[in-house]
Amino acid sequence: MTFRLFIVGLGPGAEGQVTQEAREALAQATDLLGYGLYVTRAVVFGAADQAVPHVTDNREELGRARHALELAMQGRVPVVVSGGDAGVFGMASAVFEAVAEGPEAWRAIDIRVIPGVTAVLATAARLGAPLGGDFCVISLSDNLKPWDVVVRRLRLAAEAGLVIALYNPRSLARPGQLDLGLAALRDVLPGEIPVVFARAIGRPTEHVLSTTLSQARGESADMSTLVLIGCAHTKQIERPGQIPWLYTLRRVP
Amino acid sequence: MTFRLFIVGLGPGAEGQVTQEAREALAQATDLLGYGLYVTRAVVFGAADQAVPHVTDNREELGRARHALELAMQGRVPVVVSGGDAGVFGMASAVFEAVAEGPEAWRAIDIRVIPGVTAVLATAARLGAPLGGDFCVISLSDNLKPWDVVVRRLRLAAEAGLVIALYNPRSLARPGQLDLGLAALRDVLPGEIPVVFARAIGRPTEHVLSTTLSQARGESADMSTLVLIGCAHTKQIERPGQIPWLYTLRRVP
């Protein structure tokens, strides 16, 4: 018997940004596991009618992963869902961590990770081409890593001249960290570097704020915002009546 | 009159990894502009039958971008296509560079960038969850930036503890640079760090080589390979008869 488990990235939220592969996995689900918002989205995006929803909080990722692996061993077809791409601060890592720590039998499960459009790609596309050069993706949360590691990574990334995408920039429990991170970046980068706060890209509640590093304030972000920090080669194109286009030169002079 | 232009990411190559949005843009095309492989793929993925193909070499990106903008100004609906995501070492940056340098009228064109699944996401999904933590995406090509910038970025990214995805790792014109880049990384990272060479992920010619930093050799890559270099928290899970799963711990101890 083949035991199967899917880990599916649902994309940024708009139905048109889901891949066909993701839809096909959802259509096979007997169980859907994830954060409430993503389980709801999975149903909208075509999960099988009989799929049993298992909604858990975002802090319970390892328990959710183990539950999915147990369901797979019972011959069910659990689908673990994440927003964006499940491999980028989503559920994929938690599932493999659970496998590594779990019973040997779990290694025989046919685990398929279905990639998706992660937030930084959708945000960049909406703005123009700010990822035109090298870039990095950093979570600002210190739930899982020490804060001094976060700051060190920001500084080194800025010194390297990488465009920086910040996931999880701010939460109620961490209201001040984004300002500290921006201050660390100001030590390395000039104040006129473009900074964008992008929320709910591609959805009806979309909001984009374009500013500069010197003027950026943490209060412009919440947990659902992606913060994009340009590099020395990130340029703006002004347009009448629209947010400016942002792009990073492919060429480093 | 609205002038329109689409820039579309076609995903890694498998038809199931294309988004619905990308298909809808292709279906509206009067003209397809891109590298031959991607124009062919765009036709397979549902480009309008009457779309005129304009195939150009990868070294002619700015000229291709200007051509697309001129077609848009003629009232046609040009679709510029890239593999993966057009914003990640694809055509998006070239189009906006052409807009910035071009006539003012081009700023009125409704340019839509349709995001796609870029190679590093598809590769990570195939391997497990190697992007479980912070990561960066760096092009190893020095066609557009000095080689010392490339090496400096690699060293700083490794010092930061980021997982590193290398695009364009090797070409006929640059046969030795990947070995130089790997040598620079060995100065910073321990030799047992996992390294993966992944080619044509999700396609029939898929090839994956899992090794370590100390044993990695540039000759294992070509221009179509993505090279993924783990960090200190990237782990392997051995499986009978299969390539090992690779994942990066979400937690930095």
From TrEMBL, chains A, B:
<keyword id="KW-0169">Cobalamin biosynthesis</keyword>
<keyword id="KW-0808">Transferase</keyword>
<dbReference type="GO" id="GO:0032259">
    <property type="term" value="P:methylation"/>
</dbReference>
<dbReference type="InterPro" id="IPR014776">
    <property type="entry name" value="4pyrrole_Mease_sub2"/>
</dbReference>
<dbReference type="InterPro" id="IPR051810">
    <property type="entry name" value="Precorrin_MeTrfase"/>
</dbReference>
<dbReference type="InterPro" id="IPR014777">
    <property type="entry name" value="4pyrrole_Mease_sub1"/>
</dbReference>
<feature type="domain" description="Tetrapyrrole methylase">
    <location>
        <begin position="4"/>
        <end position="216"/>
    </location>
</feature>
<dbReference type="InterPro" id="IPR006363">
    <property type="entry name" value="Cbl_synth_CobJ/CibH_dom"/>
</dbReference>
<dbReference type="InterPro" id="IPR000878">
    <property type="entry name" value="4pyrrol_Mease"/>
</dbReference>
<keyword id="KW-0489">Methyltransferase</keyword>
<dbReference type="InterPro" id="IPR035996">
    <property type="entry name" value="4pyrrol_Methylase_sf"/>
</dbReference>
<dbReference type="GO" id="GO:0030789">
    <property type="term" value="F:precorrin-3B C17-methyltransferase activity"/>
</dbReference>
<protein>
    <submittedName>
        <fullName>Precorrin-3B C(17)-methyltransferase</fullName>
        <ecNumber>2.1.1.131</ecNumber>
    </submittedName>
</protein>
<keyword id="KW-0949">S-adenosyl-L-methionine</keyword>
<comment type="pathway">
    <text>Cofactor biosynthesis; adenosylcobalamin biosynthesis.</text>
</comment>
<dbReference type="Pfam" id="PF00590">
    <property type="entry name" value="TP_methylase"/>
</dbReference>
